[in-house]
């Protein structure tokens, strides 16, 4: 699929500058930090950070005592994550083809990574999240709110990229999350004053 190759190559290109860009993300974004802290408190077992980038959120979860690991499409991102956090496990992989065993984790974090998956493939990714989660496990998705798709052709210091960002309405995503076998428990709005706001969805895997 060309979107997968484009996304992987784009994040390979910007991996180093992205890591610098997000280095103090949690200090800059207290509400996001609170969401991750809540996720850590709710998760009773291993958790996987899908689309983990350079592993900064994976490491934050681990610092709170979570048995956290990461998966990312970009080998360069995974390389950075492994170097920065050698005590944690990071693997290259796509959320559309997760290789984790069934019911093997108690938490899935997809922080601004599902935004790159085209609408038609969202049920595939959500199906994998549900498959790898134990019943009662927690799914947290961070995303951009809106409608339509934006093509990002450069970023993080002007590096060339070719990555699509799919904006989503909360009802649109919640409907698909429910259809994948989850109960939506909460939805947080972040930066509601921005032209493109962000949101965090919390959902529980059904029994
Ligand atoms: C905007 S970054 C977010 C990184 C980190 N989760 C954060 O919130 O800062 C998007 C990340 O998702 C990864 N990604 C995109 N599509 C993916 C896919 N299909 N499977 C796994 N990771 C993916 C990219 O390689 C990139 O590292």
Automatic annotation (TrEMBL):
GO biological process, one term: methylation
One Gene Ontology MF term: S-adenosylmethionine-dependent methyltransferase activity
Residues annotated as domain Methyltransferase type: 48-141
InterPro entries per UniProt: Methyltransf_11, Methyltransf_Superfamily, SAM-dependent_MTases_sf
Any coiled-coil regions, as ranges: none
Record bears the keyword DNA-binding: no
Keywords: Methyltransferase, Transferase
Protein name per its UniProtKB record: Class I SAM-dependent methyltransferase
Organism: Amycolatopsis eburnea
């Amino acid at each position: 699929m060309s979107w997968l190759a484009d996304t992987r190559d784009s994040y390979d290109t910007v991996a180093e500058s992205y890591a610098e860009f997000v280095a103090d993300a949690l200090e800059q974004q207290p509400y996001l930090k609170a969401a991750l802290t809540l996720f850590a408190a709710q998760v009773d077992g291993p958790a996987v950070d899908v689309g983990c980038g350079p592993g900064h959120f994976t490491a934050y979860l681990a610092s709170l005592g979570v048995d956290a690991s990461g998966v990312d499409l970009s080998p360069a991102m995974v390389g950075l994550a492994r170097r920065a956090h050698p005590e944690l496990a990071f693997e290259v992989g796509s959320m559309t083809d997760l290789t984790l065993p069934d019911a093997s984790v108690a938490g899935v974090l997809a922080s601004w990574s599902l935004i790159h998956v085209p609408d038609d493939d969202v049920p595939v990714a959500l199906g994998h999240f549900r498959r790898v989660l134990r019943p009662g496990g927690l799914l947290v998705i961070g995303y951009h709110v809106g409608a339509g798709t934006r093509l990002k052709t450069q970023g993080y210091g002007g590096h060339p990229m070719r990555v699509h960002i799919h904006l989503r309405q909360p009802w649109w995503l919640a409907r698909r999350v429910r259809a994948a076998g989850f109960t939506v428990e909460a939805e947080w709005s972040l930066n509601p004053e921005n032209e493109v706001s962000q949101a965090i969805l919390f959902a529980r895997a059904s029994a």
